[in-house]
Amino acid sequence: MIERIHQGFELIREGRALGRDTSRLEEKVKTLQMRRNKKVEQLRLSEFERRDLAVEIYSEVLGCTVWLCSNKEMASQVKRDDPEACYTTHELRELVKLNLHSEDLKKIHDAKRVFPGSSLKAAIPYEVPEIIRQDQNGEDAST
Questions:
Q1: 75: which residues sit within 8 A by CB, 6+ positions away?
Q2: CA gap 77, 69 in Å, rounded
């Protein structure tokens, strides 16, 4: 089924490039995606990660649909067809670890849309350098 969806996306892209009406094909691909999504919903994240999958999900926080991709390769493939922001399972895990508020999630999403191909890296805790902690008079700004 996944191969048929990929072929459908390829045909849609080619049809659009030729100026053809692709609406019927788009509906068929959406139907295939819905069938696949029902099966994918039953997978644990770890199982989803082991497969080459991409799922379109509506986010109430963001107010739009986003793609969840099992790996970077799938994310690259999805971005060719739909350049809006998509997230890998690795990125999803990082977002969960950060425990962000909805406004912060929106900022990250906006940044991913503005910078296509960008991805979330692991959050690395760091200490603020001494020079930044001091104000211009050389006093410790943290006091």
A1: 54, 67, 69, 86, 87, 88, 119
A2: 10
| Cβ neighbours of 32 (radius 10 Å) | 15
> How confident is the model at residue 128, as a pLDDT?
55
Residue 17 clears pLDDT 60, i.e. is over it = yes
Cβ pair 8, 29 in contact under 8 A: yes
Token representation of residue 93:
């895990």
Please check whether residue 55 is in contact with residue 99, taking contact to mean a CB–CB distance below 8 angstroms.
Answer: no
Predicted structure pTM score: 0.58
Give pLDDT tens digits for 71-113: 888 888 888 877 677 889 998 888 888 888 899 989 888 888 8
Round the CA-based radius of gyration of the chain to a whole number and report it.
20
Nearest to 105 by CA among 67, 72, 59, 74: 59
